[in-house]
Known about the structure:
This protein is of the alpha/beta class. The protein has helices spanning 22-36, 80-91, 98-106, 112-120, 134-142, 162-170, 179-189, 212-217, 236-250, 278-287, 302-309, 321-330, 339-351, 353-370, 373-386, and strands at 6-10, 40-46, 61-65, 68-73, 125-128, 147-149, 173-176, 196-198, 223-227, 255-259, 270-274, 290-293, 314-317, 333-336. It is globular, with a radius of gyration of 21 Å.
Amino acid sequence: MAAPASIAVVVPRHADGVTAGGAETLLRQLALRCAGRGLRVRLLTTCATSHFTWANERAPGVVRDGPLEVEYFPVDDRDAGVFLEHQQALSRGADLTREQEEAWLANSVHSRALYDHLRAADYDRVLAGPYLFGLTVGAARVRPDRTVLVPCLHDEPFAYVSPIREMFGAVRGCLFNSEPERDLAARIGGLPEARGRVVGMGIEPFDADPAAFAARRGLDAPYVLYSGRREAGKGVPMLAEYVRVFRERTGRDVRLVMTGSGPVDPHPFVLDAGMLPEAEKREAMAGARVFCHPSRLESLGIVLLESFMAGTPALVNEGSEVLQWQCRRSGAGFGFRHYPDFEAMLDRLLADEPLRARMGAQGRRFVQTEYSWAAIDARLFQALETL
């Protein structure tokens, strides 16, 4: 089968330096890899920058972002009250009628102008994601035979809504970030193995001074690091409480450093470093005794892989099949189900420096082998040619 010559990449927000999630970053990186291979690529996105308000804050039109053409389209008017009503019901585990499911989807983020563009254009492939947004479903409905989802799928109530399940059955195929994510799509949407490929995202190799961050911030004690969105859905309040209890029970003076966006509950042992330049974030990772990823809902765990590249072992929530899979394959992390596990594993990593160093080296080798851009490109372009 011939490789596609032209590709549209559809994503709700463009990760061009503004605060955006891992899915937006992943879609942008895949677009850049395709453009670097000489394909005609246009990234289609909305004029919104906030995933809370979805207000049109950018001007519509085409701009150049390095090798990419990025076209911004206005977000349609929506009834946020109806959307939130059904969203909250789904979060509580309620069963919605088909009419309610469609109302939830209809009042998600959409752009008729973007859909009209897809109908008028003649792209060979449409890469669209993540799965959760109306924009992804809407784009897939325009060109299902040419659409390849990059779903960033989580095992959560929204994934079981009928229009989402039907989308998996209608599209040309899916690019997954991990084997557990692929298996979840098979369970939820009945996706045949032949229409899914595990690709992932490349991690740039780097070296960072493990002493630089602590020296700059005046840290005189070992620290656990968290990076990403600071919110309950990511397990951040639980992590802060676990570290507080750990300090009380063990008497160890261990700190918690949090980088990323979102509010942080004030604790004397917590350093809120906020959004960091990439170089300083890498230094923070290299200097941490342990990187902790407490989220259950992940499809890749980009920051986990970055911490492995920095040579730092991890503690991850055992409820995340993806994070556990990454730790098992790399030999660079432990999982915890509850606080007693967390205490035992953190205490062990703080006390056993040879173990910590060995796990850190294993993680770095794993990322260099499995998540180099050469490995990702081989999987990506084979998938685009064969799906």
